[in-house]
Write a structure and sequence with these properties.
Elements (H helix, E strand, L loop, with lengths): L5 H17 L10 E4 L9 H6 L15 H21 L4 E5 L13 H10 L3 H4 L3 H13 L8 E3 L2 E2 L9 H15 L5
Parallel strand pairs: 1-2, 2-3
Antiparallel strand pairs: 3-4
Helix pairs in contact: 1-3, 3-7
């Protein structure tokens, strides 16, 4: 049947569908759309995203399935969503919230969870609290001046991967997201 990898569904398609259903491009009161991405988007495997965009197979062109790879792909997809929304006239921006102390590691491989557990004592030195991690989102959502950059880190414009800024790839993924979510083309 129609199966989509869980990380992509949760981190991208759910957000895409929410935005698609709520955003009215004709409304003068259209709000800013803030999408949480991650700096990990920079390691997303572009060939596999195009060869197997829903990450359905256990083995893609150049790599075996990994939760970490799926996470990176979903975060690149979020930046592409923002790029496509901007093309459609939306006030939209993507961000990396930083290394946050959270339960995000629960889905990682055993050894990455072990490394996370071992690193917990020094975690406050290298990770942000959830509240600190939310600062960039709150700033971008509430600043009066529309953010000009596509991608932000620590509430400041930041470089993203060259693939993340590729409008053609963003549009291809937008069309795929529409098809996966069963919503009409715009």
């Amino acid at each position: 049947g129609k199966q989509t990898e869980l990380t992509l569904a949760a981190n991208h398609l759910g957000h895409y569908l929410l935005v698609k259903e709520l955003w009215d491009p004709t409304s003068p009161a259209s709000p800013r759309i803030v999408s949480v991405s991650s700096s990990i988007h920079k390691i997303a495997s572009l060939p596999s995203m195009l060869d197997d965009p829903a990450y359905r197979s256990t083995t893609t062109t150049s790599q075996q399935f990994s939760t970490f790879g799926a996470y990176a792909r979903s975060k690149l997809a979020n930046i592409w969503m923002v790029l496509s929304l901007r093309k459609r006239g939306a006030d939209a921006v993507a961000l990396h919230p930083g290394n946050i102390t959270s339960e995000v590691t629960r889905g990682l491989t055993f050894w990455l969870r072990v490394a996370d557990y071992i690193g917990r004592p020094i975690s406050p030195l290298i990770r942000k609290s959830c509240a600190a991690g939310a600062r960039c989102q709150v700033y971008l959502a509430t600043t009066k001046v529309p953010p000009r950059a596509l991608y932000y880190v620590h509430s400041a414009p930041a470089p993203h991967s060259s693939d993340a800024g590729n409008e053609d790839l963003a549009e291809q993924y937008w069309a795929l997201s529409e098809a996966w979510c069963g919503v009409g083309r715009d």
